[in-house]
Amino acid sequence: EIVLTQSPDFQSVTPKEKVTITCRASQTIGSNLHWYQQKPDQSPKLLIKYASQSISGVPSRFSGSGSGTDFTLTINSLEAEDAAAYYCHQSRSFPITFGQGTRLEI
Amino acid sequence: EVQLVESGGGLIQPGGSLRLSCAASGFTVSGNYMSWVRQAPGKGLEWVSVIYGDGTTYYADSMKGRFTVSRDTSKNTLYLQMNSLRADDTAVYYCARSWGHFDCWGQGTLVTVSS
């Protein structure tokens, strides 16, 4: 099983700050890594697919990078509405796995 | 509009069975990979199962033999049959369209396993 480890688990941030969340895979997964945002009492929402590909309708302040085992989600100029939990997810092999999540408090 | 709507959750005793439904609109269930993902209260996301367009299925190890994913093309609906339910199956269950990434999610349905 591929284990995804996110850091940090929790971060208190301020508006306009630049935030970086990392996701490390226990074995190489190429670019088969995706990022989601989940606000309280809502379903997860796809932010970035295949490590760095943007999603229509997602603000341009969200970007992703990385390949192999190390990945990064960057939020430029954080806004109050970005308070949420963020999860990475690998689709390289079964079982499909998620990171443990990173909660951003603003 | 692409939409998924889950139903069928509720309170069930340990050892019981429940079938969840996920009605799709705006696309066909049979023409896509469809997954179930769950989230225990206050916890992270956990993948449950997937069904491919050709009917091939895969499950997380802890659900193998207890859960069965299926679909009804005439109703454009995905199902999750859950048997031998345990307290640690308590979670919100989401269905999601999955092409590697999960690009469309339902609102979720809560399953509570408790006596």
Description:
The complex is a heterodimer of chains A (106) and B (115). In chain A, the strands form two sheets. In chain A, strands 2, 4, 5, 6, 9, 10 and 11 form a seven-stranded mixed beta sheet that branches. Chain A has a four-stranded antiparallel beta sheet with strand order 1-3-8-7, with no helix packed on it. Chain A has no helices and eleven strands. In chain A, strand 7 and strand 8 (70-75) form a beta hairpin. Chain A has strands at residues 4-7, 10-12, 19-25, 33-38, 45-49, 53-54, 62-67, 70-75, 84-90, 97-98, 102-105. Chain A has 106 residues and is mainly beta. Chain B is built from no helices and eleven strands. Chain B has strands at 3-7, 10-12, 18-25, 34-39, 45-51, 57-59, 67-72, 77-82, 91-99, 101-105, 109-113. In chain B, the strands form two sheets. In chain B, strands 2, 4, 5, 6, 9, 10 and 11 form a seven-stranded mixed beta sheet that branches. A four-stranded antiparallel beta sheet of chain B has the order 1-3-8-7, with no helix packed on it. Chain B starts with a strand and ends with a strand. Chains A and B meet through strand 4, strand 5, strand 9 and strand 10 of A and strand 5 and strand 10 of B.
What is the topological layout?
The complex is a heterodimer of chains A (106) and B (115).
Chain A: E1 4-7, E2 10-12, E3 19-25, E4 33-38, E5 45-49, E6 53-54, E7 62-67, E8 70-75, E9 84-90, E10 97-98, E11 102-105
Parallel strand pairs in A: 2-11
Antiparallel strand pairs in A: 1-3, 3-8, 4-5, 4-9, 5-6, 7-8, 9-10, 9-11
Chain B: E1 3-7, E2 10-12, E3 18-25, E4 34-39, E5 45-51, E6 57-59, E7 67-72, E8 77-82, E9 91-99, E10 101-105, E11 109-113
Parallel strand pairs in B: 2-11
Antiparallel strand pairs in B: 1-3, 3-8, 4-5, 4-9, 5-6, 7-8, 9-10, 9-11
Major sheet size, sense and barrel closure of chain B: 7 strands, mixed
| Global outline of chain A | globular
Number of separate strands of chain B:
11
Q: Would you report the number of β strands of chain A?
A: 11
- Report strand % of chain B: over 45%
- What pattern of helices and strands is seen along the backbone of chain B? EEEEEEEEEEE
**Tell me about the biggest sheet of chain A?**
7 strands, mixed
What is the end-to-end distance of chain B? 40 Å
Radius of gyration of chain A, CA atoms, in whole angstroms = 13 Å
User: What is the arithmetic mean of pLDDT of chain A?
Assistant: 97
* Topology of chain A as a string of helices (H) and strands (E): EEEEEEEEEEE
Unreliable stretches covering 5 or more consecutive residues of chain A: none
Low-confidence stretches of chain B: none
Q: State the share of residues found in helices of chain A, binned by percent.
A: under 10%
Name the largest protein-protein interface in this structure. A-B, 23 and 20 residues
Please tally the helical runs of chain A, counting DSSP H or I stretches of 4 or more residues.
0
